[in-house]
Amino acid sequence: MTEFSEAERAYLKTQRLGRLATVDGKGQPQANPVGFFPQDDGTILIGGYALGTTKKWRNLRGNPKAALVIDDVVSVTPWKVRGVEIRGTAELLTGPHELGPHFSEELIRIHPEKIHSWSLDQ
User: Fold this and answer.
1) Which 3 state secondary structure label does DSSP give 92?
2) CATH class for domain 6-118?
3) 29: which of 19, 49, 55, 88 is 20 to 30 A away, CA to CA?
């Protein structure tokens, strides 16, 4: 799947924190918590403070493949989790945007190539 279902779109709008996985030049994975913003065009924007100075930014300059996982725990007893994993290509952007003044001018736009979700109907 390369487009979000209605259930996935609805879920993503209720969440604010995800984990972005990138790979460095030596092939080592890195995962970091990030703020994300689903866009009407089906992409995901990721912003941050001084984002252009981060290892994830440098990793994506060398290898634009990325995965973003957004999930939460619905219940502990019984154990129920739900979430969305988005695999795709990252586009590095620099310039003015409307995410807010606390974000640097650098943004990461994830173009989904594979979307997998679980337990969103619960």
Assistant:
1) strand
2) mainly beta
3) 49
